[in-house]
Amino acid sequence: MRRVLSSVCVATGLALVLVACGIKGSPKPPVPPPAPPTETQPPPEDPSRGPLEPSGPTISPTPDAGPGVPGTEPT
Q: Do 47 and 53 touch, CB atoms closer than 8 A?
């Protein structure tokens, strides 16, 4: 009986040492490298199109415009 108990203790101790060292099973396969980032190309210039022009009215600041609160009278 003593032999069986000592064998079980030795096996348990060996298993604990292996687990503590990180030897738990077969190693994982290597992870493939990440895919390289794709570069987006700008759209090709269309020679038949002219320069862009504004389609609406232009808003220009006035000299007396300042940081005012809407709905209040300027002083």
A: no
